[in-house]
Amino acid sequence: MGCVGSSAKCGDRRQKKVRRPKPWKHTEVITKGQLKQMRDEFWDTAPHYGGQKEIWDALRAAAEADIHLTQAIVDSAGIIVQSEDLSTCYDERGAKYDLPKYVLSEPMNIKED
Fold first, then answer.
1. CB atoms inside a 10 Å sphere around CB 113
2. In the structure, what pLDDT confidence band is assigned to residue 15 with cuts at 50, 70 and 90?
3. CA distance 111 to 33
4. Which CATH number fits domain 31-102: 1.20.225.20, 1.20.1270.20, 1.10.290.10, 1.10.645.10?
5. Per-residue pLDDT reduced to its tens digit, 63-74
6. Average pLDDT estimate for 19-48
7. Could you tell me if 108 and 23 are in contact, meaning their C-beta atoms sit under 8 angstroms apart?
8. b or e along 25-57 (b: 16 or more beta carbons within 10 Å of the residue's beta carbon)?
9. Using CA of residue 74, residue 78, residue 81, residue 87, what is the dihedral sign?
10. Cα separation, 65 vs 54, whole angstroms
11. What is the DSSP string of 26-44?
């Protein structure tokens, strides 16, 4: 019958646990300053890709936080995690949010300024 009063199987939307992104390399060696500039440019323009500004703000906070706090931010904002590394997420209305690798972690070939 319907989902009312039935077991957790019906309509269960289990939240994926957020994990650290896999190691990756940028196409060329970049400095921490260049990486920060790339991240700032992305977050400044992200709301123009669609979706809600509040969700973009929560995703930024989650991307910049440690992994335990990241999970709490994602859960409290109602973000549906498609990819465990946060590269693809959805809000409760179904809007898609794609995050590039460089906002989620540092590349292996980064150098000091």
1. 7
2. low
3. 9
4. 1.20.225.20
5. 999 988 999 999
6. 92
7. yes
8. ebeeebeeebbeeebeebbeebeeeebeeebbe
9. negative
10. 16
11. -SS-EEHHHHHHHHHHHHH
Q: Give the pLDDT of residue 68.
A: 87
pLDDT at 10: 41
Residue 6: is its pLDDT beyond 50? no
Its pTM stands at 0.82
Domain ranges across the chain: 31-102
Per-residue confidence (pLDDT) for residue 4, from 0 to 100:
47
Closest CA to 95 of 79, 83, 84: 79
C-alpha 32/C-alpha 5 separation (Å) is 53
Question: Which runs of E-coded beta strand occur in the chain?
Answer: 30-31, 80-81, 88-90, 96-98, 110-111
The two tokens of residue 7 are 């077991």
